[in-house]
Amino acid sequence: MLFRFTEKILIEQIRNGNLKAFEIIYREYEERIYRFVYFRVSNRETAQDLTSEVFIKILDYLKNTDIEIDNFCAFIYKSTRNLVNDFYRLRRLTVSLDEVREVSLPSNLEEIAEKNIQLGEIKKYFEELKPEYREPVLLHYFEGLSYKDMAQILGETEDSLKMRSHRGIKQLKKFLKKGA
Amino acid sequence: MDIRGLIREYKHLRPETDWSQKNMACLEDYFSIHFGTKRTGIFIFRPVYATLCVVFVIFLSGTGLAYASYNSNSLPGDFLYPIKKISEKAKLALTLGRSQKTVLRAELLDRRVDEIKILKESNSPFLGDATSDFQKELKTFKKEIAVQINPEMKEIKTNEVLSGKTDLPVEDQKKIIPYIGNAEEVKKILAETKELLSQKNLEVALEKINYLENMSEAATTTKEKIEIKKEEETKNTTSSKPKPSSSKKIEPLVGSVGSLMILDKESPDMKAPELGKENE
Predict the structure, then answer these.
(1) Contact B206, B250 (CB under 8 A)
(2) ipTM for the complex?
(3) What confidence tens digit (pLDDT) does each residue in A122-178 have?
């Protein structure tokens, strides 16, 4: 995990055209962003596309503005969340019956199936949670973000997020006990 | 399964290595196209190394050496100049409080003006880059003050950029040469701005910076005017003939830091008068 001021220095280096600095940031966040997106969209290819798009948008932002980013972690998660929301919004507008029927057959079916089972398991418990608990629990307990970062990402107060994530994790523990 | 098990399962959701490598390659290409990759200079390679650098700077500050590098007289183009810049950035990163950061930025801008003055006096080839950097830092400084006054500005700008609505100014066919004039006036304005920021009088501070920016815009001139001026000066020094009263009056290059001379090849208004006709 990078320190915040280390990230600030790396961001400055990226703005100066330092590819190595970008590689460090990418390695730090690639897996986390992919996981966060995959959990939301439940489709491997879509998760890959959206993850790439997040980093492209970040590069565009760094290229086109000089605004200092105080908290890069909150910034990248917020951008990811916005992109996923936009994806769903567009999908609602443009999905057709043909697209729904279309089935793509990836080559590595076994690995995909295994990952889907894992994802399915986790989602099964999350879907039982109240909607207002899901994101705070995911971001704090699964992604390991602080309440301060979450407040910036979700645009809410830390106290409200603390309360919802505590209640959410209690509920999740209950479901897990029941399911065991 | 318990919560830890569930979190462990979640963390196993990783991208495939193949895709990860291909994605990195694509992003590298994208980076090179848009940023013009530079791999030279002093930069931080690894997170641990980066953190150690900052810790080293903090440690050195106790011995006074970081103070020396932060306060060094190195100029753009000097070997130690990047160290000076890194020290400044580290100091900025370690300064707590937005208002204190903004006051520090005003100080750093003042340093840039001093550097530019020395570069100009020595006809340094790095003058153009130094003045461009000043322009950039001035813009950032202005935005920082504006965001402090209205925090929603940052949100709007962020969303605008992330939704792809950014339009870069098109500078095709234009050559921008930065120019510095009355540095003392700029230093005076920066000192006043710093004072206002210390008093948390952000609105007036922003007005001062706007004034500084407007000064630089008003002082825009063309390459042809400079060439005409140079020719006039050459003719005045070499010619014995009295100066004709109808000679074209050259507007003075109004001085302000970071004035830009925008050369527009296509603009008819900027067309140079034919040689010799100006003295008719």
Answers:
(1) no
(2) 0.81
(3) 888 888 888 899 999 999 999 999 999 999 999 999 999 999 999 999 998 888 888
Residues of chain A with CATH 1.10.1740.10: 1-104
Q: Has domain A1-104 been given CATH number 1.10.1740.10?
A: yes
List, by residue range, all CATH 1.10.10.10 domains of chain A: 108-180
Whether B44 and A173 lie within 8 Å, measured CB to CB: no
**Cα–Cα distance measured from residue A115 to residue B9, given in angstroms and rounded to the nearest whole number:** 9
Contacts of A65 in chain B (CB under 8 A): 157, 161, 166
Q: Chain A closest CA to B174's CA: distance in Å?
A: 19
User: Cβ neighbours of residue B122 under 8 Å, at least 6 residues apart?
Assistant: none
Contacts of A56 in chain B (CB under 8 A): 27, 30
Q: Give the CATH class of A108-180.
A: mainly alpha
Tokens 């972690």 sit on residue: A73
Distance, in Å, from the CA atom of B183 to the CA atom of B181, rounded to the nearest integer, reads 6
* Chain A residues within 8 A of B96 when measuring between CB atoms: none
pTM of the model: 0.50
Question: Count of CB contacts below 8 A, A vs B?
Answer: 156
> What is the tens place of the pLDDT at every residue in B208-243?
888 877 776 665 454 445 656 667 777 777 655 554
